[in-house]
Task: inverse folding
């Protein structure tokens, strides 16, 4: 149950607030994130640590290791439940398909090996004829 | 089939941000420990190591080290170590604005 990163992935394109360990805050829309919680925000408002200075920037990249916390709209939390269920269903289907293919592939492989042995002997003979 | 599953789990080894659009543009980089620098991005790699040309370090106020003051020092052509970088943002398009949040925080 990887809840924190799934929540973050689900929150893509949603606005959020990010506070860094150094106290600065970034308000913006989540463009993308990765397994290390590095994030790329768009249309960002940066608030300095003292809450006195504000800057607007088109985008920022923030290292996951420097994040203290993120504030996400509540609507996203509801979306996560549905997405997690769908991902589990998808994985179940993949497992089912894998099993059936695995059985058929095993039988085909055995047949192929015996054929290769026969062809190998045949090509050796042809090679000898060419040299002569 | 296996590739589909990997895509859903993001098998990408690429960075989530495409730094190529910042090449030859001024970027503002913040570092672990509170240092800040701006410079023209000349190069980068997957580990977020950056090559900045004409880099300028923005020094902090002598009285309050948490505030970035007006003083600067020139660094020239530098390689910024990706492991120490905390924030990367384009310097162009960054403008100071008055408090955008209507509610008073205090």
Result:
């Amino acid at each position: 149950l990887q809840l924190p990163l799934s929540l973050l992935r689900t929150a893509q394109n949603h606005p959020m607030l990010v506070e860094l360990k150094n106290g600065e805050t970034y308000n913006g829309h989540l463009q993308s994130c990765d397994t290390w919680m590095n994030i790329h925000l768009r249309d960002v408002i940066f608030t300095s640590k003292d809450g006195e200075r504000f800057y607007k920037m088109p985008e920022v990249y923030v290292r996951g290791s420097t994040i203290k916390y993120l504030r996400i709209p509540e609507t996203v939390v509801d979306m996560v439940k549905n997405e997690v269920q769908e991902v589990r269903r998808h994985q179940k289907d993949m497992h089912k398909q894998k099993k059936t293919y695995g059985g058929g592939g095993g039988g085909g492989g055995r047949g192929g090996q015996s054929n290769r042995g026969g062809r190998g002997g045949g090509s050796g003979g042809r090679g000898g004829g060419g040299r002569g | 089939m296996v590739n589909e599953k990997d895509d859903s789990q993001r098998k990408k080894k690429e960075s989530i941000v495409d730094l190529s659009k910042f090449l030859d543009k001024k970027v503002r980089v913040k570092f672990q420990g509170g240092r800040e620098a701006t410079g023209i991005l000349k190069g980068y790699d997957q580990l977020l190591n950056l090559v900045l040309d004409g880099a300028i370090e923005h020094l902090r106020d002598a009285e309050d080290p948490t505030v970035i003051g007006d003083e600067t020092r020139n660094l020239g052509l530098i390689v910024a170590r990706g492991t120490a970088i905390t924030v990367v943002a384009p310097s162009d398009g960054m403008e100071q604005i008055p408090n955008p949040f209507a509610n008073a925080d205090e």
